[in-house]
Amino acid sequence: MPYFAGDGGLAVRIADLREIVPLLGGGSVVSWGNFDGVHLGHQALLSRLAGAGASLGLPSVALTFDPHPDAFFSRNAPRPLADPGDKLALISRLGVDYALVLPFDAAFARQSPRDFARDILVASLRAKAVILGYDLGFGRSREGGFNLLRGLGLEYGFSVEQTSAVRIEAKAREGTPSARALPVSSTRIREAVGRGDFEEAAAMLGRVYSVRGPVRWGARRGGSLLGFPTANLDPGPLLLPPHGVYACLAACGGLFYPAAANLGLNPSFETGSGADSAGPSPSLEAYMLDFEGDIYGRELRLYFLRFLRPERRFADAAALREQIGLDVSETRALAEAALAADNFSTLFPL
Known about the structure:
By secondary structure, the protein is α+β, with helices and mostly antiparallel strands. The chain folds into two domains: 3-162, 3-Layer(aba) Sandwich (Rossmann fold), CATH 3.40.50.620; 208-347, Riboflavin kinase-like (Elongation Factor Tu (Ef-tu), domain 3, Beta Barrel), CATH 2.40.30. 31% of the residues lie in helices and 26% in strands. The chain contains eleven helices and 15 strands. The chain has a seven-stranded mixed sheet with strand order 2-1-5-4-3-6-7, sandwiched between helices. Strands 10-11-14-13-12-15 form a six-stranded antiparallel β-barrel. Strand 12 and strand 13 (255-264) form a beta hairpin. Helix 5 (113-124) crosses helix 6 and helix 7 (186-194) runs antiparallel to helix 8 (198-205). The longest helix has 23 residues, at 317-339. It is elongated, with a radius of gyration of 23 Å.
C-alpha cells in the first residue's frame, strides 16, 4: 500500500495512487530514487525539485520505494542508512511537498520504462516536469535512461531535467595513491561508516551519522557491577559501524547527552555457555552521561562522533571499570566540542 508524506512530513497511508490526484491540481513536478540516507547528492536533487515546483506553481513530489529494490532482489542487500520515518522527514525539510513511498514488489519490478512513465508519472501524478539524478535508471532491470525518458516526455507532455553529481574529495588510503573528488553516494557512505570514519560520512551526509530505536532490557551489568548504567538500544536493520567503543551524542525526549557506546559482544562477560549455535548476538549499549530517570521503552537516537577503541577482554571488572572511566572522559570532551558547534542543528537534526 503506498503512503505519502505531506503537511510537515507526516506519513499518511493511501489505498490507491489515484487518491493523490486531487492534491496535485493541474499537475506536478516529480523526481524519484531510493534516497537512502538523503545525502548531499540527494539533497541537491530534491532542493532543485522543490525549486522547480515553486517556479512552475506546481506541487513537488518525490517518489521512493519500500523495500529498497536491492532488498527485494537479494537477501544480502546492504543495510539502510536511514529508516523510512527519517527518510520522509529529511525529504520534507528540503521543501518537497509530497514524499510518496511506493511498495516495490514483483509487479512493480516488471514494469517497462514506458509503463512507469504512462501509469505512474502521467496517469497518477500528472507530471509536467521531471527532475532526475545523474545516475538515473528506471523501469524493468533499470533499462530506462535519460534519453529514453526525454523521448517519453515529448510523447506524454512532460519536460525532463538531469542534475549533476555532487562530488566530495575521497581521503587517500592504502591502495588509493591520492585524494580524488568522487560523486557522493550511499555506497561511499556505507564504506565510511564500515570503517568507523564518521568525519567522511558526515561530509557526504551533511549531518552526523546516527541510528535510533527503542531501549530494551539488557543484562543490566553496567550499573550494578561497573557503576555505569547503560541503555541497550535496538537499531533494527540500520547500518552499524564495526564492533568497538564510540564517543556519541544521545538524543532522548528532545535533549542531548554525551554517551559512551559499546557495540559488540561484551567479551569480558562471555561465559562460554548458553549461547546458541550461531553464537552470541552483538548489542549496542550506551552510557548516557548526566542522564537521570527511566529510559526503558523510550526511543533513543545515537549520533556517532568518533571511534575510541576496539572491543577487548579485560582481566576483571576493576580493569574494565578503569578503562570505561577513560572512555567517558574522552567522550565528554568530544561531546562538549560537538555541542558548541556553530552548525549544531544542521549536524544533529532531531
